[in-house]
């Protein structure tokens, strides 16, 4: 349809037609003017109304089909509703277009003002959303201020950079550097001290004497080396690690508390670090390989996110589909949980609200789902393609 030029247009008449032969736009427009002339009196004559601007430019869409012509007529009107209705009814009286018999049927009379109102409302929503995004979040500003204040709390004690509570606290968290101390201070943890930048290992040893020590290190090989060196002159009681490939200084507050909550006794942490190199007792190489893959993909951060999502899903009776980056790509009712559902095809992780049954496990396996996880399962299913896990498995490190 052509553009409606009149800014005063109130209504748009839309009428479909079929002509028993081939006709062109001038034939259709001529029929509209010619066959309605005098029908409604001089005051509603289309030619006069168009001259005065109360009827806009008539537009026509054409398409040929099997030797006939079909199309739609568009007539913009700035008349009132009753006058526009008369014009619309008059259009249906047209019986010929050019040399051909024709039938015209009214499709709709649209209130252009309503269309404009819908556009205004939708556009206003977009503008409001943009304004809300650009407005400073009060909580974020408050946290920024708190973070700035906490950062200023960093002190130096005998060459050791630490939080204000670290000197006299019974428990202390050792991190690798100043940036890590600052990040923990922003999270409200004040009994933290940096290993780097110390005047001597002897001073660090004195600093930690009679304290319970948690070493909170980066999730990379550098963290392994720091722990190895630190344990030579400091009695480390617990070990907490950032997720694989992440550094303590870049963790969000929630991640920090998750990592500290999952800290392990020093001896257990060392055993865990090196036991993965060989199969566990009574474990086949295939089982060990699956165990290793699970440990590599389902990091503490991912496991906690999955557990949180499962808690929020309670009562939905739904399945949530995620990609390898733990981004949800679809959500579907359990009644649609079948291998034929394209949403499940080769999905990385699917979380379901409820208990994993044999039927659900088999459908997931057919679809190629890699991980199927729920709060519980009828029993421990073993599938060719799909790994079946429960909340308990996640909590117990498989």
Q: In terms of topology, how is this protein built?
A:
Elements lengths: L10 E9 L5 H12 L9 H6 L7 E7 L2 E10 L3 H11 L4 E2 L2 E12 H23 L3 H14 L3 E3 L2 E3 L8 E5 L2 H9 L5 E3 L6 H8 L3 E6 L3 H10 L7 E4 L11 H9 L2 E2 H10 L9 H13 L2 H14 L4 E5 L5 E6 L15 E4 L2 E2 L1 H10 L3 E4 L1 E2 L9 E4 H5 L3
Parallel strand pairs: 8-9, 8-10, 10-11, 15-17, 16-18, 17-19
Antiparallel strand pairs: 1-3, 1-5, 2-3, 4-5, 6-7, 11-12, 13-14, 13-15
Helix pairs in contact: 5-6
Give structural notes.
- The protein has a five-stranded antiparallel beta sheet.
- It is of the alpha/beta class and 398 residues long.
- The protein has helices spanning 25-36, 46-51, 81-91, 112-134, 138-151, 178-186, 201-208, 221-230, 253-261, 266-275, 285-297, 300-313, 358-367, 391-395, and strands at residues 11-19, 59-65, 68-77, 96-97, 100-111, 155-157, 160-162, 171-175, 192-194, 212-217, 238-241, 264-265, 318-322, 328-333, 349-352, 355-356, 371-374, 376-377, 387-390.
- Residues 1-6 and 275-286 have low confidence and may be disordered.
- It contains 14 helices and 19 strands.
- 39% of the residues lie in helices and 23% in strands.
- The two termini are 63 Å apart.
- The chain has three domains: 11-110, Alpha-Beta Plaits (2-Layer Sandwich), CATH 3.30.70; 155-275, Dna Topoisomerase Vi A Subunit, Chain: A, domain 2 (3-Layer(aba) Sandwich); 289-395, 3-Layer(aba) Sandwich (Cytidine Deaminase, domain 2), CATH 3.40.140.
- 26% of the residues are buried.
């Amino acid at each position: 349809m052509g553009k409606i030029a009149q800014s005063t247009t109130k209504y748009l008449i839309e009428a479909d037609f079929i002509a028993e032969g081939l006709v062109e736009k001038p034939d259709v427009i001529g029929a509209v003017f010619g066959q309605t002339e005098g029908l409604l009196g001089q005051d509603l004559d289309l030619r006069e109304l168009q001259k005065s601007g109360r009827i806009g430019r008539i537009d026509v869409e054409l398409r040929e089909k099997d030797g006939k012509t079909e199309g739609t007529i568009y007539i913009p009107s700035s008349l009132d509703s009753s006058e526009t209705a008369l014009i619309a009814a008059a259009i249906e009286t047209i019986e010929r277009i050019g040399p051909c018999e024709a039938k015209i049927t009214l499709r709709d009379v649209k209130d252009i003002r309503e269309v404009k109102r819908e556009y205004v409302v939708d556009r206003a929503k977009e503008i409001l959303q943009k304004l809300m995004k650009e407005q400073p979040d009060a909580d974020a500003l408050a946290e920024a201020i708190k973070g700035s204040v906490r950062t200023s709390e960093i002190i130096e004690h005998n060459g050791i950079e630490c939080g204000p509570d670290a000197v006299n606290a019974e428990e202390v968290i050792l991190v690798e550097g100043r940036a890590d101390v600052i990040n923990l201070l922003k999270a409200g943890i004040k009994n933290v001290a940096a290993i780097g930048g110390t005047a001597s290992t002897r001073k660090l040893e004195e600093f930690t004497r009679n304290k319970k020590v948690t070493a909170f290190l980066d999730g990379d090989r550098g963290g392994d080396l720091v722990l190895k060196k630190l344990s030579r002159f400091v009695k480390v009681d617990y070990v907490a690690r950032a997720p694989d490939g992440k550094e303590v200084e870049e963790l969000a507050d929630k991640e920090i508390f998750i990592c500290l909550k999952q800290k392990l006794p020093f001896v257990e942490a060392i055993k865990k670090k090196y036991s993965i190199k060989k199969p566990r007792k009574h474990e086949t190489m295939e089982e060990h390989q699956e165990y290793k893959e699970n440990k590599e993909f389902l990091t503490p951060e991912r496991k906690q996110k999955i557990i949180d999502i499962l808690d929020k899903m309670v009562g939905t009776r739904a399945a949530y589909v995620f990609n390898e980056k733990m981004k949800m790509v679809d959500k579907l009712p359990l009644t649609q949980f079948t291998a034929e559902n394209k949403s499940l095809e080769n999905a990385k992780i699917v979380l379901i609200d409820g208990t994993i049954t044999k039927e659900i496990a088999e459908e997931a396996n057919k679809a190629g789902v890699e991980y199927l996880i729920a709060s519980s399962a009828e029993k421990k299913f073993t599938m060719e393609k799909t790994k079946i896990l429960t909340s308990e498995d996640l909590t117990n490190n498989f």
